């Protein structure tokens, strides 16, 4: 087209993933426009016969060699800065750091060929999801109206003229570098190939659609608030939607815990009282509770368990945000192990702040009829008879339990999420209700299973003074005593009712969360 500005991106970059100019296996049609580096005229998804592995490998190696400036077989930040500059792609140092951190699996500060290929493949998948989320008309092109609509959905209002400027001209990282135009053919629309060519070696992490759809700790409440906090998009922060998500999550947790409180109390009773000589079963436990205190006794300890949701969630979220600032400059810089570190520290701070409420919850669940008139009376009795130190019994095993719980829960959830995104996310990152519930249930179950022995020891230490004749023992001594008298199985007393409540807890919290979101005016995308 005469007078149209052309992309300054090299053909080697723009056609790197497939010799026909389209991403291998992509279901996105480009509407007839071919890539600037495409070797063929087909701009849609290509057949396997045109994308042989040997040809793809050759093109990837060619690009890798062009970027490997010092010829040491690995790409560092300097290599990327110089190599991409020679190809007409100018990225800021922060962008280059994100690229290296995203693909650096062995943490040596550079990308070898295998890491580079894996980064490109994963990156292209994310780009396709972003493109499809913007393509409201599903015609394989993004126009100004679709950009306006997408931003309005996130609470950001711009004019169509401003959207056209976004389409027409997007500047690369350095202000002194050349300007790259995404809309290469001057049609005021962007097809898939133009979108991919421009962003191929530009970091895209934690894309808004994935963050929006795959919230975990905010939605699912299984009674243990030890999970790593969820991320929120920039738009959710700017529009104030983040606190509505937290409120909805808190309300969902309150309903979920109340509905599963009988199972939770049975778990506590089995953790403290069950043994080889007192083999308490589920039916027998419920019968014993109802005989001793009536049906209402099934909910003992639930009040304090619900009350602690708000302070714990608020403290953990604020601590997490502050810790992230020390670890990385923004949320996109945090990798899995960094999120785990920040989340575990935030969880430790939150648990330390509300731990006396944890002790009260255990004592209220174990109390006999008429023993205490309420939570305040229970607290006064503990303070008068046992002193302030009693409110921190079991503190050490509780803190130690955060790491295996949060770590395994996060690792399993992220693995399941990424597996689903890689295999099934073609048009949207939305996994649907059942996939989301399944991922949340599996990850929570794995996290609880790993940390359960520590949780049992914590509960027994919290209950020591409430059990007649129970000796004052340390965490180490209690572990030895349980293993000696009950064996390894003794560390998993109460596991059955604990697992029985996971599926109903996850399901109830999800349904309530979605309804509260609508009530609070949070749009589901």
UniProtKB/TrEMBL annotation:
The keyword Transmembrane helix applies. Belongs to the mitochondrial carrier (TC 2.A.29) family. SMART domains: EFh (SM00054). It comes from Zonotrichia albicollis (White-throated sparrow). Signal peptide: none annotated. GO terms for biological process: transmembrane transport. Solcar repeats lie at residues 240-326, 334-419, 431-519. Pfam families: EF-hand_7, Mito_carr. GO terms for cellular component: mitochondrial inner membrane. Transmembrane segments: none annotated. This is Solute carrier family 25 member 25. InterPro entries: EF-hand-dom_pair (IPR011992), EF_Hand_1_Ca_BS (IPR018247), EF_hand_dom (IPR002048), GDC-like (IPR002167), MCP (IPR002067), MCP_dom_sf (IPR023395), MCP_transmembrane (IPR018108). It is found in: Mitochondrion inner membrane. The keyword Protein transport does not apply. Residues 55-90, 122-157 form the EF-hand domain. GO terms for molecular function: calcium ion binding. It is a multi-pass membrane protein. It comes from the Eukaryota. PROSITE patterns: EF_HAND_1, EF_HAND_2, SOLCAR. Keywords: Calcium, Membrane, Metal-binding, Mitochondrion, Mitochondrion inner membrane, Repeat, Transmembrane, Transmembrane helix, Transport.
